[in-house]
Amino acid sequence: MIEAISVSKSFGTLEALKKASLKVEKGSVYGIVGSNGAGKTTLLKILAGIYQQDQGEVRIDGAGVFENVNVKEKIQFIPDALYFFAQHSIEDMAQYYRRIYPTWNEKRYQGFSSIFQIDRTKKVTSLSKGMQRQVAFWLALSTMPEILILDEPLDGLDPVMRKKVKKLIIDDVADRELTVLISSHNLRELEDLCDHIGILHKGDLFLQRELDDLKREIHKVQIAFKGDLPEAIREHKSILYHEKRGSVSLFVVRGAQHDVLQHFQQFQPLILDLLPLTLDEIFIYEMGGLGYAVEELIAE
Ligand SMILES: Nc1ncnc2c1ncn2[C@@H]1O[C@H](COP(=O)(O)OP(=O)(O)OP(=O)(O)O)[C@@H](O)[C@H]1O
């Protein structure tokens, strides 16, 4: 289990992370989303034990992570900017990992060669960006990690490899309760993988929910009337967005489905549709509440 309790981190005068708290249960997949510069990488690096927090506590299975070798052996962190030793082939890197990780699984490493299909004698730094990312997953998953921390993990992978890597992660979560923390701007992808979502903005982890709850709590309403839109319809306290498209009005409203329906039905519309939002849309509307301009970003 990963726990962060009121964790803060500054770089000079910049507060990159402000009292962030989160809990990722064993076997759970937690996605961090946020605007550029929100503090996602900073948070992941603290949880992976690469940066030390200024304040607060970080615990992996109850123990501190910074400079704690026993804990770090259980964690694999794949950063957004990958690093490999300049002259090392894949096999040399594997040898390095074999020496460091007592949990290294040789059978798995050999077996993955049919998935990744890259010549193991090749120098890693001579490979393409996407191939280097494949190597990062190949090595990381061969150590049988208990915790996987991924920063923009699928960036640069082709669609087939994305699918294969996602399957490897999902299988490890199902088969051996791998705990995963992922940051990504690709919300469509997070939607496939995550059961929990946290939204970070300017160092503040301001919203955390189970993905299913998040989706249940916010709705897109398409509504049309014979005449004009009744003025009182806008009085629902949790309307996040409203737009008129011809004779149809679109509302994004936070609240329980039953309450939202009841509010709109009382005006006896000609058409009333309640639609689910994608994670992309939820992110855009929630960020809109924080002053981000949403109008030009609205998904259909
Ligand atoms: N080593 C560092 N030294 C100084 N400032 C830093 C350092 N690392 C991050 N920052 C600053 O901290 C803030 C958060 O950066 P971070 O990389 O964590 O954001 P992010 O959410 O991962 O962004 P992105 O989505 O753009 O990758 C930014 O303002 C960044 O400039």
TrEMBL record:
<dbReference type="InterPro" id="IPR003439">
    <property type="entry name" value="ABC_transporter-like_ATP-bd"/>
</dbReference>
<dbReference type="InterPro" id="IPR051782">
    <property type="entry name" value="ABC_Transporter_VariousFunc"/>
</dbReference>
<keyword id="KW-0067">ATP-binding</keyword>
<dbReference type="Pfam" id="PF00005">
    <property type="entry name" value="ABC_tran"/>
</dbReference>
<dbReference type="GO" id="GO:0005524">
    <property type="term" value="F:ATP binding"/>
</dbReference>
<keyword id="KW-0547">Nucleotide-binding</keyword>
<protein>
    <submittedName>
        <fullName>ABC transporter ATP-binding protein</fullName>
    </submittedName>
</protein>
<dbReference type="InterPro" id="IPR027417">
    <property type="entry name" value="P-loop_NTPase"/>
</dbReference>
<keyword id="KW-0813">Transport</keyword>
<dbReference type="GO" id="GO:0016887">
    <property type="term" value="F:ATP hydrolysis activity"/>
</dbReference>
<dbReference type="InterPro" id="IPR003593">
    <property type="entry name" value="AAA+_ATPase"/>
</dbReference>
<feature type="domain" description="ABC transporter">
    <location>
        <begin position="2"/>
        <end position="227"/>
    </location>
</feature>
